[in-house]
């Protein structure tokens, strides 16, 4: 709080009048940032019947969001492990990703291991760390990363058919 007050050019007492504790300050900053940087709307994906197109639309939106918010998300993910307040507040974003995964799994007629494998592939595809690796480290652009993750999810579904002898040739 002292560092924030110093950076803002105000006394600590002034800061405490507006934000009684670190959690209140964190929440205010989070609300301001979230209002300026909303994640893609899950409800815009769910009406898309074609599961592959739904995945592509979702990934394009998520990857654009990740590109705009990379530094903040990287810092939050870093701090999530060591700062209880960040872990507690960042749980909402983890919940959002869980709902995104469910939305992208819906309509895929899978059971058992194939469902779990496809769910894992979707979870991997929507992860910030996946986007960061593909775009930041491997040099793909967002479109290339979307295409690659679409192929991964398709392969997760196809492997089940191949392993049971049901794959059309």
Write the layout of secondary structure elements.
Layout (H helix, E strand, L loop, with lengths): L1 H7 L3 H7 L3 H15 L14 H30 L3 H22 L6 H15 L1 H10 L4 H22 L6
Overview of this structure, please?
With about 170 residues, the chain is mainly alpha-helical. It has one domain (about 25-165). It is built from eight helices and no strands. The protein has helices at about 1-10, 10-20, 20-35, 50-80, 85-105, 110-125, 130-135, 140-165. The longest helix is centred in the middle third of the chain and has 30 residues, at about 50-80. The radius of gyration is 20 Å and the shape is elongated. The protein starts with a helix and ends in a 6-residue tail after the last helix.
Number of helices: 8
Characterize the biggest β-sheet.
none
**SSE-based structural type:** mainly alpha
Order of helical and strand elements: HHHHHHHH
Gyration radius, in Å: 20 Å
Q: How many strand segments? A: 0
Mean pLDDT: 89
Provide the domain count.
Answer: 1
Features:
169 residues, mainly alpha, elongated
Report a brief summary of the structure.
The chain is mostly helical and 169 residues long. The protein has helices at 2-8, 12-18, 22-36, 51-80, 84-105, 112-126, 128-137, 142-163.
């Amino acid at each position: 709080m002292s560092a924030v007050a110093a950076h803002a050019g105000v006394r600590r007492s002034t800061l405490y009048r507006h934000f009684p504790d670190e959690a209140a300050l964190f929440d205010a900053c989070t609300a301001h940032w979230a209002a300026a940087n909303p994640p893609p709307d899950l409800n815009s994906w769910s009406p898309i019947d074609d599961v592959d197109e739904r995945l592509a639309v979702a990934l394009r939106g998520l990857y654009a969001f990740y590109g705009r918010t990379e530094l903040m998300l990287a810092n939050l993910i870093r701090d999530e492990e060591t700062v209880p307040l960040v872990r507690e507040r960042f749980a909402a974003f983890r919940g959002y990703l869980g709902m995104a995964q469910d939305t992208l799994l819906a309509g895929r007629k899978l059971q058992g291991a194939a469902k779990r494998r496809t769910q894992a592939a979707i979870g991997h595809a929507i992860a910030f760390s996946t986007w960061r690796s593909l775009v930041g480290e491997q040099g793909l652009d967002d479109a290339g990363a979307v295409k690659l993750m679409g192929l991964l999810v398709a392969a997760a579904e196809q492997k089940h058919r191949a392993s049971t002898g049901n794959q059309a040739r």
